[in-house]
């Protein structure tokens, strides 16, 4: 009489077949997962680089300058800046490879006269500090021993200096002012390259009727807030008794008069 059950040989045959199927399908599935992860990563990075290109087009006068038609690592824009300025959606974006939050930036280079954009996760450490000071500060000065803050609200001022610090030294300076509860910063010490950007910012914030424009500068005043930008590269924010400024040579300070 035949029993209604698998024999040992039959069971071994099934196990062997399942093993062969597993040997074929598991690597295939793994490869598909890896390929899809790589595709998702590349698409996300491409969106960062596209956003950086749009940002650069809107800030073309504020980009660092190159004296030749090829300059590696000319400038950098962080993902935080792209989010803050509306070029990326303001949310945490996870790296599909690591499941960690993307926290890098896009390196901008100039090659054969054309701008190139390359995302990089680990950027050189750059710090932003703020100060209201009557001392003269210059590009390249060390911030060691200088009283600064990373929170501008602690300054208790409607305008102040913003310094970008790299390797412990001042790399660039801006004048920031507060109007209607919002903070705006004017780029200085660029030989005038950022003048059109500064001018456009002031016009958008104050409105043309509140600004006096001539061939070399723009001066705006509204709601007790005043700010100026000069074609030579200087910028200033002020009231009736004091001001903060960055000159075209990179010298920055605040003055009480």
Q: What is the radius of gyration?
A: 28 Å
Output the structural class.
Answer: alpha+beta
Strand order of the largest sheet: 8-9-10-11-12-13
Tally of structural domains: 2
Which percent band covers the strand fraction? 25-35%
Summary?
The chain is an alpha+beta fold and 257 residues long. The chain has two domains: 47-120, no CATH class; 126-256, no CATH class. It has three helices and 13 strands.
Task: Note down, in words, how this protein is organized.
The protein has 257 residues and is an alpha+beta fold. The protein folds into 2 domains: 47-120, no CATH class; 126-256, no CATH class. The protein is built from 3 helices and 13 strands, in the order H-E-H-E-E-E-E-E-E-H-E-E-E-E-E-E. The radius of gyration is 28 Å and the shape is elongated. The model has no long low-confidence stretch (mean pLDDT 86).
Question: Any chance you could write out the topology, listing elements then pairs?
Answer:
Elements (H helix, E strand, L loop, with lengths): L7 H51 L12 E8 H6 L20 E7 L2 E7 L5 E6 L27 E8 L2 E11 L2 E6 L7 H12 L4 E3 L3 E6 L2 E6 L4 E4 L3 E5 L5 E5 L1
Antiparallel strand pairs: 1-2, 2-3, 4-5, 5-6, 6-7, 8-9, 9-10, 10-11, 11-12, 12-13
List key phrases describing it:
single chain, 257 residues, alpha+beta, 2 domains, 6-stranded antiparallel beta sheet, 4-stranded antiparallel beta sheet, 3 helices, 32% strand, elongated
